[in-house]
């Protein structure tokens, strides 16, 4: 470790100690139905959202927590799997996991690693360095992470407790927790999609952007990418850089979208208070924002456009697809395209039944369609499928009383977007969204223990001062 990084870690320890108030313990150990110690909070997902949630809880003296991730250490989140951009898309000055502790910011870490001049000359944060930073962050603040452990099922365990069935090394076990946070990213409440016209194609000819894709095998081949968001462009660029003969990117819109709505909404008022709006205004905002989809930065376009064999097809939704001699013919309103492989950059869809961990209650999770009916000109079945969340990110029941225990499951992922804006999926929202989530978790834990706190208060008899009393006359 360099002396600069060692000095930074010492600064982190000093900053955390100086800002630890109030640091009095306020939670007592609890036992699960098996008599063994139970967790106060179990966090599923050790990506940037999961470890930052853990850090926020630790700052609030909620330390009996565990973070699980099915991947090995260093491969949490999308960064070293299906994130195929060279750099983050967020401006380098955006903060997030640090939760307003300056020594924990990416900038502080980068300057300790490479110097201040290097930071000044940096345009965007390299993706692989962001992974290194997140690992450094979690180790430095002491987040308890168990890798190689996958959540299989959530069930009620009685007494305000949840049972999480997990698998690690081929063996299943049950962990008990008072609260569970699902910080599982894009596919938390559904899965990545393949457009209907392509679903009959074999895996050898079509893939989703979330799939492991052998780009080296595309050398000299024709590739089609469906979709025109930043992720679609990243995959097109990766195929081009791997030596694909031709890459065709198919955009269903008449003109490709150049506006990035998330830039507009990155201000404190929206990020902090969007979830306070009534349903009419929340629906209207998010319907407009999500209909725009996610734009792409200039560097993403340039990465593709520098190749003469890159072809953008606007106004070209795929209407049909058929396999022809080991290739695929895509039918669009502007002509047919013959390609050797198709990559679907069409995002995710919400379908609770596709998540096995939700199987015990998938049919009773309240959706936006259950709670709000928009005017005829604002209807959207797609958005109506999003979960309708409580003010603490908790799941709510479609039919009250059937599964009341799901109010102890808190969703902090992309599917939180309709209720909270881009809080569980974006770096730009972390500084406001994580404290809101932590506030909700600690509020529920405090209320659940209120009788104990009242008894503790009534029994409290520690004097603050000692006053000498004259001896009584003998």
Q: Which labels suit this protein?
A:
474 residues; globular; FAD/NAD(P)-binding domain; 30% helix; 5-stranded parallel beta sheet; 20% strand; single chain
Question: What does it look like?
Answer:
The chain has 474 residues and is of the alpha/beta class. The chain has 2 domains: 290 residues, FAD/NAD(P)-binding domain; 118 residues, FAD/NAD(P)-binding domain (3-Layer(bba) Sandwich). Helix content is 30%, strand content 20%. It contains 15 helices and 18 strands. Strands 1, 2, 3, 4, 5, 6, 7 and 18 form an 8-stranded mixed beta sheet that branches. A 5-stranded parallel beta sheet has the order 9-16-10-11-12, with helices on one face. β13 and β14 form a beta hairpin. α1 packs antiparallel against α3 and α6 runs parallel beside α10. The chain is globular and about 110 Å long. The relative contact order is 0.14. The mean pLDDT is 95.
Overall outline: globular
Task: Give the tally of β-strands.
Answer: 18
CATH topology of the largest domain: FAD/NAD(P)-binding domain
Number of domains: 2
Q: What is the multimeric organization of the chains shown?
A: single chain
CATH superfamily of the largest domain: FAD/NAD(P)-binding domain
């Amino acid at each position: 470790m360099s002396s600069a990084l060692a000095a930074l870690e010492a600064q982190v320890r000093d900053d955390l100690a100086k800002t630890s108030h109030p640091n009095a313990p306020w939670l007592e150990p609890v036992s699960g139905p098996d008599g063994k110690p139970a967790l106060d909070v179990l966090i599923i997902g050790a990506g940037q959202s999961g470890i930052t949630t853990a850090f926020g809880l630790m700052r609030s003296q909620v330390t009996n927590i565990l973070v699980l991730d099915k991947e090995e250490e260093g491969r949490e989140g999308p960064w070293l799997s299906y994130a195929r951009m060279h750099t983050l898309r967020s401006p380098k000055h955006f903060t997030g996991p640090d939760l307003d502790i300056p020594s924990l910011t990416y900038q502080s870490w980068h300057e300790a690693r490479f110097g201040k001049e290097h930071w000044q000359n940096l345009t965007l944060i390299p993706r692989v360095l962001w992974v290194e930073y997140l690992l450094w962050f979690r180790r430095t603040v002491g987040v308890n992470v168990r890798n190689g452990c996958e959540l299989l099922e959530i069930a009620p365990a009685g007494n305000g407790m949840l049972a999480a069935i997990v698998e690690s090394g081929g063996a299943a076990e049950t962990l008990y927790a008072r609260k569970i946070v699902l910080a599982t990213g894009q596919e938390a409440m559904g899965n990545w999609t393949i457009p209907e016209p392509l679903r009959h194609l074999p895996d050898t000819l079509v893939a989703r952007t979330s799939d492991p894709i052998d780009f080296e095998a595309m050398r000299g081949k024709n590739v089609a990418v469906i979709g025109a968001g930043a992720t679609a462009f990243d995959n097109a660029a990766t195929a081009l850089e791997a030596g694909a003969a031709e890459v065709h990117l198919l955009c269903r819109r008449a003109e490709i979208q150049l506006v990035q709505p998330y830039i507009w909404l990155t201000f404190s008022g929206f990020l902090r208070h969007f979830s306070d709006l009534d349903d009419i205004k929340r629906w209207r905002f998010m319907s407009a924002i999500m209909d725009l989809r996610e734009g792409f930065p200039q560097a993403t376009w340039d990465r593709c456009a520098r190749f003469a064999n890159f072809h953008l097809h606007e106004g070209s939704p795929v209407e049909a697809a058929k396999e022809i001699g080991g290739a695929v013919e895509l039918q669009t309103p502007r002509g047919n395209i013959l390609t050797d492989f198709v990559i679907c950059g069409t995002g995710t869809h919400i379908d609770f039944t596709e998540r096995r961990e939700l199987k015990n209650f998938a049919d009773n999770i309240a959706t936006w369609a259950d709670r709000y009916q928009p005017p005829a000109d604002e209807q959207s079945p797609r958005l109506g499928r999003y979960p309708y969340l409580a003010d603490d990110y908790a799941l709510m029941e479609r039919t009250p009383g059937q599964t009341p225990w799901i109010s102890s499951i808190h969703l902090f992922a992309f599917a939180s977007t309709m209720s909270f804006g881009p809080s569980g999926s974006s770096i730009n929202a972390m500084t406001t969204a994580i404290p809101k989530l932590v506030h909700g978790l600690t509020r529920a834990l405090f209320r659940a223990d209120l009788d104990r706190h009242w008894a503790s208060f009534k029994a409290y008899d520690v004097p603050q001062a000692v006053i000498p009393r004259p001896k009584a006359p003998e």
